[in-house]
Write a structure and sequence with these properties.
This protein is an alpha+beta fold. Helices cover 34% and strands 31% of the residues. It has helices spanning 19-34, 67-74, 126-129, 140-143, 151-174, 190-201; strands at residues 4-10, 41-46, 55-58, 82-98, 102-117, 132-138, 179-184. It has a seven-stranded antiparallel beta sheet with strand order 3-2-4-5-6-1-7. The radius of gyration is 18 Å and the shape is globular. The two termini are 22 Å apart.
């Protein structure tokens, strides 16, 4: 069954004023690892996810915003009871059928979301979710459990998993975090799941 993947990040001695620089630093790691260099959407939610956004903007492909532009725009009204969400697209390998039964692996833009939490949002949700959380979407984009893989396909799945690991390590090195947690919505041990998938490919 497909499972949602998250990376929660905590920063030392964190203050609300540091939220925008923290989010920008995380977004920049996507540029280094996955080719994402701009934001395709931004929103600010007050109080909890059940509320309508107080700010929302979708950038069409031709006008996708640089990180340094989109983040301050969404956080212009910075409140400790808001969450700020930024949508980006990074390139992962996906199987595409061409000419009937032939499968070709191509880089496909996949949506990820980087969320910065104000300390009072959703009753202090940052304590569990992190000051900044990366929502990677479904593990299907990395594992392709529904695909019968040949050795070539297995290599592309390994590349996707490697990109996830590389991104996590880049954030660890470059963003000044104090701790991190890569986790899944089901609570399954994600590292074991990734390792098991790779072992089945060998």
């Amino acid at each position: 069954m497909a499972d949602q993947i998250y990376l929660s990040l905590w920063f030392p001695n964190f203050r609300l004023e540091a939220l925008a620089p923290a989010v920008i630093s995380v977004l920049k790691q996507f540029s280094l690892v996955g080719g994402a260099s701009s934001v395709s959407g931004a929103a600010a939610y007050p109080l909890s996810w059940n509320e309508a956004p107080i700010f929302q903007r979708i950038f069409v492909d031709a006008e996708e915003a640089a990180f340094e532009q989109a983040v301050p725009e969404a956080m212009e009204l910075l409140h400790d009871d808001c969450a700020y969400e930024f949508e980006i697209k990074w390139d992962l390998w996906s199987p595409v059928e061409e000419g009937g039964l032939d499968v070709v692996w191509k880089k496909d833009p996949c949506i990820a979301r980087v969320v910065g939490f104000g300390p009072e949002f959703d009753d202090g949700a940052y304590e569990q979710n992190g000051h900044v959380r990366v929502d990677f979407g479904l593990d299907t984009f990395f594992l392709h459990d529904d695909v019968d893989l040949d050795p070539e396909g297995a290599e592309y799945v390994k590349r996707n998993v490697t990109m996830l690991v590389d991104l996590t390590n880049a954030i660890q090195r470059n963003c000044g975090i104090s701790s991190r947690l890569l986790w899944s919505e089901s609570g399954e041990n994600l590292a074991q799941k990734l390792v098991a998938r790779l072992q089945r490919l060998n």
